[in-house]
Amino acid sequence: MEAETDVAAAMNCPQAAEAVACALNPANGSAAREAHRAACPVCRREAEAACATVAWLRGAPEADPSPGLVDRILTALPPPRHRCFVLRRRLAAAAAVFLAGALWFAAQQMRRAMPSDRGRWLTRTQHRDGVWEPIGIATPTAPYTPALTALAALALERLGPAHRAAVDRAIAALLAGQQPDGAFGPPGRCRAYNHGMTTAALLAIRQIRPSAVSEAPLRLAVDRIRATQHADGAWGYDIGIAPNTAITVWQTDALIRARASGWGDPGGHLRKAVRWLKSQQTGDGRFAYDRAAGGSTATLDAMGYAILLEASLPAADHLALARQAAQALQEAASPGRVADFYRDYFIARALDAAGVRAQAAAIRQRVAALQAVDGAWAIADRWTPVGGELYATALALLTLN
Questions:
Q1: Rama region for 204: left / alpha / beta (φ>0; ψ in -120 to 50; rest)
Q2: What is the pLDDT of residue 45?
Q3: Which domain holds residue 159?
Q4: Which one of 8, 155, 252, 388 is separated from 46 by 20 to 30 angstroms, measured CA to CA?
Q5: What CATH number does residue 390 fall under?
Q6: Number of other residues whose CB lies within 10 A of the CB of residue 143
Q7: pLDDT of residue 113
Q8: Average pLDDT over residues 361-385
Q9: Distance linking the first and last C-alpha atoms of the chain
Q10: Partner residues linked to 377 by β-bridges
Q11: 21: pLDDT confidence band, cut at 50, 70 and 90?
């Protein structure tokens, strides 16, 4: 008890030790403790660091002790002075073997427990009204609630029927908030992301479980995407604002899923979007944010390749693009890259579509190893200041499934 007090004092918050303990074992937690951890930057930092350390340890390769290790240790000890020491040696050896076995068994149990219910953190943090909102972040992100809720719902739907009640609550909340013109999300620069992500995610849920989302509100949402498309085939943050690759990818994703639902491509909106995305590819195979400003990144490359490879291009074009994707994304998919859940989600999608299964599996293995014991992904990346653990966990689960 005194040791816990000393540690907490060193962390500058008297509840920091409890926050770490609750993060490592949610069974010890409570609503009050979790609320404090979400609001206290010290407790949140220490809990995230502890969870990251445990996740790293879990991801370490297993290694069996070399044969005869116990015998070699005992042989190296000084010779026994009398018979009782022989017995003690044998008892010590037996205890050592038992302890090693117990530790190995515990480690295996911890390893097996991690993927057993990957969605438990999302179901636990869903609000009663069906939405999810990031907690414990510096910048209020209520405008992105529809997108984050939709991505979390899709992640749970892909995990199977066990989470269906949470998914249905989220769908009801999203449809209740849909605007008369079909838009998801409040007006402003956030709407394009909200609408594209939410429409694509709800269409994806409907592909898995057709009865989950009724057709009429989704057709209205798709019609809005078509109506707001620029003449050149792309989308920007709002009508009249210059288009870019990041926004266009999500709207195109929704149109691809609408076509897969049997709704066709009236007006050629998907065809024009694909043509525009192709035009953003530079000579070295990378994708620009827009051709005027340039600004290629590994994330934009992965987004461009993923959507174009999923767009049912002619066979020859698909094969050529798949070869380009495998080469262009090789460095971004390397094991040593810093965590970026948004980037890794699209890299895995692109590599899957390109048929590069080994690299896609390596991405997923890297992401899985970062899960904390409470079920969340608490590792910070460039987007967690906006979406927090909610964004990271939803994207990680979508990457894995």
A1: alpha
A2: 66
A3: 120-400
A4: 155
A5: 1.50.10.20
A6: 16
A7: 36
A8: 90
A9: 42
A10: 371
A11: confident
Report residue 151: phi and psi, to 5°.
-65, -40
Angstrom distance (rounded) from CA 208 to CA 374: 27
Largest CA distance in the chain: 95
The answer to whether residues 42 and 12 belong to one domain is yes
Interatomic CA distance for residues 398 and 219, integer angstroms = 24
- Please report which confidence band the pLDDT of residue 386 belongs to, taking 50, 70 and 90 as the band edges: confident
Task: Using DSSP, state whether 120 is helix, strand or coil.
Answer: helix
Number of domains in the chain: 3
| Residue at 34: amino acid letter | E
Instruction: Tell me how many helices (H) and strands (E) the chain has.
Output: 18, 0
Looking at the fold, whether 90 and 191 belong to one and the same domain comes out as no
Is the pLDDT assigned to residue 9 strictly greater than 50?
no
Helix (H) or strand (E) holding 193: helix 191-208
The reply to whether 82 and 125 lie within a common domain is no
Judge if 144 and 203 occupy the same domain: yes
Overall pTM > 0.85 = no
Q: Which amino acid would we find at residue 219?
A: R
pLDDT tens digit sequence for 138-184: 555 568 899 999 999 999 999 999 999 999 999 999 999 999 999 99
- DSSP reduced 3-state for 85: helix
Which among 212, 243, 206 is positioned nearest to 225, based on CA atoms? 243
Which tops the pLDDT comparison, 194 or 67? 194
Same domain, 82 and 197: no
Query: Token digits for 387?
Result: 């979406």
Are 47 and 93 in a shared domain?
no
* Cα distance between residue 359 and residue 326, in whole Å: 9
Q: How far apart are CA 195 and CA 184, in angstroms?
A: 5
**More confident: 386 or 201:** 201
- Determine the Cα–Cα distance for residues 384 and 378; give it in Å rounded to an integer: 9
How far apart, in whole angstroms, are the C-alpha atoms of residue 117 and residue 290? 40
Give the 3-state secondary structure of residue 236: strand
Q: Which two tokens stand for residue 160?
A: 């199977």
> Within this chain, do residues 299 and 199 fall inside the same structural domain, yes or no?
yes
**Eight-class DSSP state of 177:** T
